[in-house]
Amino acid sequence: MQREKFLTVAVVFLFMLNICTIGFVFFQRGHRPPPPIHFEKFIPESLGWNKEQIKNFDELRNIHHSQMMMLDKQNTETLIVYFQLLQQDSINTIQKDSLEKIISTIQQLRAAFTLDHFQKLKAVCTPAQKEKFNAIIPELRRIITDPHSPIKNK
Prior knowledge:
Elements: H1 2-27, H2 39-47, H3 51-84, H4 93-124, H5 127-145
């Protein structure tokens, strides 16, 4: 009888412990990071843009996105050819240097397109918004260099 009572208490205790653990995992809110603000909302919201400015932003963002997609495709294709050089017993240094220059050019174009994109975005701003734009440049730089990190709420 004592053994049955002990086992019953142990099962009830383990059941309650499981319930508490599951509740802790699913309902804990304090340690979760805040949801990231989407980049397409960050600039318009930070600068207080009107509907016309947002429309211009959407057009510029689509152009920039298509440029980046084109460069990503070129970069991927070039890297495939570049790493295929490993299949050869002896790597042709002229071909290797040529591919490295193409990869470098693609990175330069990415930077140039991005800088041009943000210059165009800044041109959409009013003088007061340009001051706000200058204030968010450090945050934009962080997002560009580390695109997977969430944007901090200010």
